Amino acid sequence: MKRLLLLVSLFALFLPAVAHADSAPARERGLLITPLRQYLKADAGSSAKSTFSVANLTDKPLAVSLSVQQFSVTDYVYNYKFEAPKNDWVHLGMHDLVLQPNQTQLVPYSIDVPAKSAPGGHYYTLFASADLSSQGVKNTIQAADLIYFTVGGQLTTVSHLQSSSIQWLVFGRTIPFRLNAVDTGNNHVFVYVSGELHGLFVRLPQTSSAHLLMPGAVRKLEGSIQSPVLPGIYKANYGYKTDAGWIIEESRLIVYIPPWFIALLLATLLLLGRYWPRLRKKKVREEASQ
């Protein structure tokens, strides 16, 4: 048992290191673009100007080509989909460059919005690509900068829940819940998912996490609420709040049975099963002797 606990502890310590490594920039790929995301806004008939940096992290010169695509997301899992731009609003300051080893180049660009353009979100990807093919082995590397661009005006950031779920019978340290949210407006919106538990003598603090909703796509949002100490029936409030102040919330009753309570109940039953026959026989003898 001690060995098992030690292995579990080591595995728990290793997980954060893996997650941190996965979230770090993949510098070993040889091409780096920064920033990874930009949020820009301009009114119809005007322009937004910005820059991004492309860095060669290899030990050889790189011929880098720059391009623009639009992106959208798939339902629920929010995987990215890229396609050719439906307009020619994005103008790069250059399309090709040669970077020496460890050299960084700043690239200007603008987004020029035609007059009378409708308000709402437009989503672009700025790609930097380089060909590292050698000896017949094809190897192309890419880096991307996601642009969340908003045309100013009458913006509608409306969202609603398509569905939601929460465990009604809980044994663990957290109470997981799931929300399927859809942005039915014309622009992206940030939402802050949270959950809270209410009982007769307890109110556990909220937990919160931030997410982005894209227009027209359903996103699966997951969260959890800290479990209480004592068993019982509790009311769970869970949902999200948008950056515009709208609150979408669900309420459900849940039954919480902690592991220690199950262990105590089993131990009590075992003790009763062991000693009850003896107590019963003793009582019978006492009644017979009277």
What does this 3D model show about the protein?
This protein is of the alpha+beta class. The protein folds into two domains: 29-151, Immunoglobulin-like (Sandwich); 159-259, Immunoglobulins (Immunoglobulin-like, Sandwich). 18% of the residues lie in helices and 51% in strands. The protein is built from two helices and 18 strands. It has helices at 2-23, 259-289; strands spanning 31-34, 37-42, 47-56, 62-73, 80-83, 90-92, 96-99, 104-112, 120-131, 140-151, 159-166, 169-170, 174-183, 189-198, 203-213, 218-226, 232-242, 247-256. Strands 2, 4, 5, 7, 9 and 10 form a six-stranded mixed β-sheet that branches. Strands 12-18-17-14-15 form a five-stranded mixed β-sheet, with no helix packed on it. It starts with a helix and ends with a helix. Mean pLDDT is 85; it is low at 1-27.
Please describe the topology of this protein.
Blueprint: H1 2-23, E1 31-34, E2 37-42, E3 47-56, E4 62-73, E5 80-83, E6 90-92, E7 96-99, E8 104-112, E9 120-131, E10 140-151, E11 159-166, E12 169-170, E13 174-183, E14 189-198, E15 203-213, E16 218-226, E17 232-242, E18 247-256, H2 259-289
Parallel strand pairs: 2-10, 12-18
Antiparallel strand pairs: 1-3, 3-8, 4-5, 4-7, 4-9, 6-8, 9-10, 11-13, 13-16, 14-15, 14-17, 17-18
Keywords:
290 residues, alpha+beta, Immunoglobulin-like, 2 domains, six-stranded mixed sheet, five-stranded mixed sheet, 2 helices, 18 strands
Please summarize what this structure is.
The chain is of the alpha+beta class. It is built from two helices and 18 strands. The strands form four sheets. Strands 2, 4, 5, 7, 9 and 10 form a six-stranded mixed beta sheet that branches. A five-stranded mixed beta sheet has the order 12-18-17-14-15, with no helix packed on it. Strands 1-3-8-6 form a four-stranded antiparallel beta sheet, with no helix packed on it.
